[in-house]
Amino acid sequence: MTPGTIVAIALGSGHPMHNYASMSASSLAENRRASAISQPKVALVPMTIGVGLGLGLGSFAGGALQSIYPYVAGTLATSSDHALWTLTYFLVHWALGIALMPWFSRKFGLKRLFILCVIMLASSSALAIIAKSLMLMLVARGAQGISAGIWCRHCCSVITRSICTPSPQRSGAT
């Protein structure tokens, strides 16, 4: 609000709940912060849907092979027990990605980290599709796990920053 707007409101063009003429500068700033927090955040709806889809994709990447391990074992010419290693590799690397996310976030910024995770998840999924050996499949599943772990923690971080931080204090994605 500009000082002219405050004077216009105080002279009767009217805000029914506040008399801005008798308020100090600090209480005006508090009112602005309170109104920024209490305003409906309609712009958060598409962002929340997109972040939710990202979480779903990361979770889907982990469980996508669970029902077809016998087929994976047949394709890779290995036993079902060895095919199950792909899930173990994914989950161990997922945990590693969750632990590394803060460092990657500081190094690359939120926007570039998001793009990096999308590219890494897509390329490692393509590598898993064309894998002809168990070792190549394990490398691909490990890369999927790291990118999905970083991505899921990243999505939670974006939601937390967007909902819990008032608009004037929120920093843009870098």
TrEMBL record:
Major facilitator superfamily (MFS) profile domain: residues covered: 47-174
SUPFAM superfamilies xrefs: MFS general substrate transporter
Ranges annotated as spanning the membrane: 42-62, 82-101, 113-131
InterPro entries named in the record: MFS_dom (IPR020846), MFS_sugar_transport-like (IPR005828), MFS_trans_sf (IPR036259)
Keywords: Membrane, Transmembrane, Transmembrane helix
Locations listed in the record: Membrane
Protein name: MFS transporter
